[in-house]
Amino acid sequence: MDDVRSGAAARVGRRIRALRTEREMSLTALAARAGIGKGSLSELETGRRNPTLDTLYAVAGPLGVPMAELVGDDDWARLDEGGISTTRVRVLREDARVTEVYLIRLAPGGVRRSPAHAAGVTERLVVLTGSGSIAYGGRRVELAAGSVVDFPADQPHVYAGDPDSGFEAVNVIVTPRT
Predict the structure, then answer these.
(1) Which residues, 6 or more positions from 21, have their beta carbon under 8 angstroms from its beta carbon?
(2) Which of 51, 63, 106, 178 could crosslink 161 through cysteines, CB 3.0-4.6 Å?
(3) 175 with 93: CB under 8 angstroms?
(4) What does the pLDDT read at residue 54?
(5) How far apart are CA 39 and CA 160, in angstroms?
(6) Looking at residue 67, what DSSP letter applies?
């Protein structure tokens, strides 16, 4: 087994620490704002713990960066956890924004709770197959193949797969540069 401190986990940890330091944010403050334990954040920063999708989103929001800033630019990176499979298809960095494109597969009955992203972040979800729902800002939108939903992602949001089918979708996340 590879030592996580020498691979992707270490690169992500170094990036989190660098961004936190640039923002003059303490480990305690970032952990509190991200809603994770201080010890867990410390283990992430030192590369002793592999980051989960939930943790990456939780940390990216308070740092004010898209998740791509934490994990690098490797297209086709895949993460499977808790009934969701996420494959990053593309990251496009422009002067005014960063656009991340993902293929997501939510298992039948699967639920993915996403914390709020940084201020001004928007998402577009294009459902390819299956059905389910997305909830954000007190709204719930039913999804079916062909559905397209644009929503503010700077608030918590929840994806839910239909119990019989789940869904597959393209998710485009746009983060304005500040």
Answers:
(1) none
(2) 106
(3) no
(4) 74
(5) 30
(6) H
Return d(Cα 173, Cα 125) in angstroms, integer. 9
Contacts (Cβ under 8 Å, ≥6 apart) of 122: 150, 151, 152, 153, 173, 174
Q: Residue 71: which residues within 8 A CB-CB, separation 6 or more?
A: 8, 12, 15, 56, 77, 88
Encoding tokens for residue 55? Answer: 């943790």
Looking at residue 6, the DSSP 8-state letter turns out to be: G
Residue keyed to tokens 């929503």: 151
Which of 53-57, 130-134, 152-156, 159-163 has the weakest average pLDDT? 53-57
CA angle centred on 52, ends 11 and 25, rounded to 5° = 60
* Distance separating alpha carbons of residues 146 and 108, to the nearest angstrom: 18
In whole angstroms, what separates CA 7 from the centre of its chain? 20
Name the pTM for this structure.
0.71
* Number of DSSP helices (H) and strands (E) in the chain, helices first: 5, 9
Domains plus CATH for the chain?
4-51 (1.10.260.40), 78-176 (2.60.120.10)
Q: In whole angstroms, what is the distance from residue 77 CA to residue 85 CA?
A: 11
